[in-house]
Amino acid sequence: MTADAARLPGESTAAATPASTAATPAAPETSPTSTAEGSVAAVPTGGSVRSGAFWGWTALGLLVVLALAGLTRYLELNVPEFAADTAVEDIASAIEYPVYAILLGLLGNVAVTLLGIRDRIAAAFRTEFFIKTGLVLLGASINLSVIASAAGPAIVQAILLISGVFLFTWWLAGRFGLDDRLRALLASAVSICGVSAAIAAAGAVRARREQLAYAASLVIVFALPSIFLLPWLADVLGLEPAVTGAWIGGNIDTTAAVTAAGALAGEESLQIASIVKVTQNALMGVVAVALTAYFALKVERRPGAARPGLGALWERFPKFVLGFVAASVIATWYLKVAGSDGKAVIGVVNDLRTWFLILAFVSIGLEFRVASLREAGWRPIAVFASATVANLVLALALASLLFRNFTG
Q1: Would you state the pLDDT for residue 168?
Q2: How far, in Å, CA of 245 to CA of 260, rounded?
Q3: Is the pLDDT of residue 14 over 70?
């Protein structure tokens, strides 16, 4: 598999198709479309049999994706209830939908591969569309006015923590010889907000789909034990509730896991943890802009080539980030105007966002290729683990400095 062929759909370069020779029998007219692998394939536009077969297989693929998404949602909502009053209650309630979605997608991948229909239904695996739509809707959950209650220390911590951890991870991944795109995904994931940041970075740097799946898996694997480890360590260290919350919010890479850990630590810790995490999430767009410029101006720029202008940067900039910011601004304004009644509407938007992200993670599992992970090996795990430890130490220092004796 080539690098271009494995990029996220819609982010690949155009592929030229060979012209038909005179000796080739006449065939139905075709039009190019992006396949699940990001390359360009011919889709019949003439010839009712071939065209109907294509759309029939695509419809079947969409049914597979929707069925696995529905099962994901069912497990997410019901497993905690099934595990209530058991030894695994806390773990079951902490597992998020990306875990179920990716696992079910992988199982579906195996099934459709064994049935020999994977490539035929692959046009329905619209990973990029699902991801970008979900992230735009994610912006509606970031109410800018909420950040104001702890704006000063939360913003300072977010800027220093993201900068420090991102640069450390980028440097360490370079020392380990990782591909620049995977470096960007790992650095974004561990320093900002986990899977969402990795997705945004993937769009900015045109990362391969398998690299995104790898980064998302590492986020989940490291986030789950942190839910229980950080509140326990905070208690052992005798940290103040506000410091504990800032530490949790600055460390754990998924919002749901932050909420679970904050709840274990106490109500005050939960509030501060949520504000700190929301502040970091809000900076995701800034990092996407920076990565776009860096990869266009340095990583992918050929020797002797002219510097890309603003037009070139705009062409490759992930436009959905603007939708993310716009959704946040609109939601903030709407909640201010509608008051408590607006929360129900935002809740519907958040639920819709969850559905789109579930569809995205299911598609990632269905598109997954084992060969690419074998190529990555153990080095990304070592980098992510080291970066997590660095994040742990730096976040504790910043939280202790900025939130000591904090009163909201």
Answers
A1: 94
A2: 11
A3: no
Q: What does the pLDDT look like over 128-144, one tens digit per residue?
A: 788 778 778 877 876 66
pLDDT at 371: 64
* Three-state DSSP class for residue 37: coil
From the CA atom positions of the chain, what is the Rg in Å? 22
pLDDT in tens, 44-101: 444 555 677 888 888 999 999 999 999 999 998 888 888 888 877 777 776 777 778 8
- Asked whether residue 230 is assigned to any structural domain, the reply reads yes
Q: Per DSSP, what are the bridge partners of residue 41?
A: 33
In a domain, 104, yes or no: no
Asked if residue 247 belongs to a domain, the reply is: yes
**What is the pLDDT, as a whole number, of residue 333?**
87
Q: Nearest to residue 333, comparing CAs of 60, 145, 56, 76?
A: 145
Of the candidates 187, 149, 137, the residue with the CA atom closest to the CA atom of residue 331: 137
What residue numbers bound the domain in which 394 lies?
A: 127-402
Please, is 245 exposed, middle or buried when counting C-beta atoms within 10 Å of its C-beta (0-12, 13-18, 19+)?
A: buried
Determine the residue type at 37: E
Q: Tokens 């408590």 label which residue?
A: 340
Question: CA 72, CA 53: separation in Å to the nearest integer?
Answer: 29
Residue with tokens 């105007």: 337
Number of domains, the chain: 1
- 42 phi and psi angles, rounded to 5 deg: -85, 130
Residue 358, domain member (yes or no): yes
Vertex 61: Cα angle to 98 and 211 (nearest 5): 40
Amino acid letter, 140: A
